[in-house]
Amino acid sequence: KQEVTQIPAALSVPEGENLVLNCSFTDSAIYNLQWFRQDPGKGLTSLLLIQSSQREQTSGRLNASLDKSSGRSTLYIAASQPGDSATYLCAASEGTYKYIFGTGTRLKVLA
Amino acid sequence: EPEVTQTPSHQVTQMGQEVILRCVPISNHLYFYWYRQILGQKVEFLVSFYNNEISEKSEIFDDQFSVERPDGSNFTLKIRSTKLEDSAMYFCASRGGQGNQPQHFGDGTRLSIL
Predict the structure, then answer these.
(1) Contact by Cβ (8 Å): B37, B20
(2) Contact between A77 and A61 (Cβ < 8 Å)
(3) Three-state secondary structure readout of chain A
(4) B48 and A98 in contact by Cβ < 8 A?
(5) Do A46 and B48 touch (CB under 8 A)?
(6) Which residues of A30-40 are buried (b: 16+ CB within 10 A; e: fewer)?
(7) 3-class SS shares of chain B: helix, strand, coil, % to 5
């Protein structure tokens, strides 16, 4: 049974810092992995999708990597801004039909 | 950019009543999902729907739950007889037909059972 864990649970950094959020999963037979952002009381905004055959994906200041063999993914945020403050979730896909979500990392970027 | 829309944004219902949560997925998407998030907990998969039938469902999705795509645009989640523990945020998601497409989520419906 797939389990997804995210570390740290919460993170507070000064503006401008580069930071890394970690996601680990127990079953390496994933189809893809997706990173989301969730603002309080809101839905999930897709940030990056990495296919199982890929090593990384980049979008602007965000870079996500995937290491299936070790069951890990990282989300790198460069030059953090107060607007990046949110909860970041990773979700590992099992086939086409299901995502298993981690508990999330609550990020606060201080101005 | 196309969006997944959910209505209502907040639903308050008495325990034991039926509730229907509505979703309009992105128009050319083929895979549809419902997830829920109890306050302070993980987002949990409920059910996926493809080609007019359930593809997969979780242990949470028992006989009290059902899904329907009554027309070409709507996708609904029905809870037949609500319980206090059904109080949660319910998210609808949809995905395009190709395997490498991301899931797009709506803003959710907050369901409060009294």
Answers:
(1) no
(2) yes
(3) CCCEEEECCEEEEECCCCEEEEEEECCCCCCEEEEEEECCCCCEEEEEEEECCCCEEEECCEEEEEECCCCEEEEEECCCCHHHCEEEEEEEEECCCEEEECCCEEEEEEC
(4) yes
(5) no
(6) bbbbbbbbbee
(7) 5, 50, 45
Q: pLDDT band for A41, please (50, 70, 90 cuts).
A: confident
pLDDT per residue over B36-77, tens digit each? 999 989 999 999 999 889 999 999 999 999 999 988 789 999
Q: Is the pLDDT of residue A96 over 90?
A: no
CB pair distance less than 8 Å for B100 and A49? yes
Distances in Å between the Cα of A42 and the Cα atoms of A7, B4, B95, B108 are 22, 13, 19, 7
- pLDDT score at A2: 87
Q: Nearest by CB to B56, which of A36, A98, A102?
A: A98
- Residues of chain A in contact with residue B42, where contact means CB-CB under 8 angstroms, are 101-104
How far is the alpha carbon of A42 from chain B, nearest alpha carbon, in Å? 5
Q: What is the mean pLDDT of chain A?
A: 93
Q: Which residue of B has its CA nearest to A49?
A: B102
Give me the mean pLDDT over the A12-31 stretch.
94
Assign B84 to helix, strand or coil.
helix
On chain A, the residues whose CB falls within 8 A of the CB of B110 are 41
